[in-house]
Specification:
The protein is of the alpha+beta class. The chain has four helices and eight strands, in the order βββααβββαβαβ. Strand 2 and strand 3 form a beta hairpin. It starts with a strand and ends with a strand.
C-alpha cells in the first residue's frame, strides 16, 4: 500500500489519511490524530525539526538497537479500530512490535519502509461495509509470498 492522501483539518481533532494499493484500485481511509498527521506531513515535505520529535526518537532507538524497519502491517480491524505492527529486522531475525497504525505509518513514511495491509482488513473495508472504504474493492492477484498481506 502507499499513502495516497493526507487530509489535515485545523478545526477538527480527527485527521484522515488514505491508503491505496500500489498496483491496484482498493483504498480506504484511517482517522488519525493531529500530531501523527503533522508528523506524516512534515516527513512528506522533508522538513526537519531542530530537536528529535517522537517519531524521530523511535527511529533513533530502532537504529541504536541495530535494527531496521523492514515494513509495517495493518493487521486487523476490531470494533472500528485498526491495529498495526512494526516489523523490525535485527541480525537476520524479525521482531514484531504492536503499534497504532498512525504511528506505524508515520514511521514508514519517515524511514521509507513499505506499508502492508492484511487481506482480511482490505476485505472488511469495502464501500458497503459502512466504514468508508473507497474505490473498487475487487481482489487482485496476490504476489507470491504475500498471502495474508497486500502491499
Amino acid at each position: 500500500m502507499e499513502l495516497s492522501r493526507i487530509i489535515i483539518s485545523e478545526t477538527n481533532d480527527e485527521q484522515v489519511i488514505v491508503l491505496k494499493e500500489v498496483d491496484g484500485e482498493r483504498a480506504f481511509p484511517i482517522v488519525i490524530g493531529i500530531w501523527e498527521a503533522v508528523a506524516i506531513d512534515r516527513n512528506i515535505k522533508g522538513k526537519k525539526t531542530p530537536r528529535p520529535m517522537t517519531h524521530d526518537l523511535i527511529e533513533n532507538v530502532i537504529a541504536g538497537l541495530d535494527c531496521t524497519l523492514d515494513r509495517i502491517v495493518v493487521t486487523e480491524l476490531k470494533d472500528r479500530t485498526f491495529y498495526a505492527r512494526l516489523v523490525l529486522r535485527r541480525n537476520g531475525k524479525m521482531v514484531e512490535v504492536d503499534s497504532r497504525p498512525s504511528d506505524a505509518i508515520a514511521l514508514a513514511v519517515q524511514m521509507k519502509a513499505p506499508i502492508y495491509v492484511n487481506e482480511s482488513v482490505l476485505e472488511e473495508v469495502t464501500p458497503n461495509s459502512g466504514l468508508g472504504g473507497i474505490g473498487p474493492m475487487d481482489a487482485g492477484p496476490e504476489d507470491e509470498g504475500e498471502s495474508e498481506e497486500e502491499k
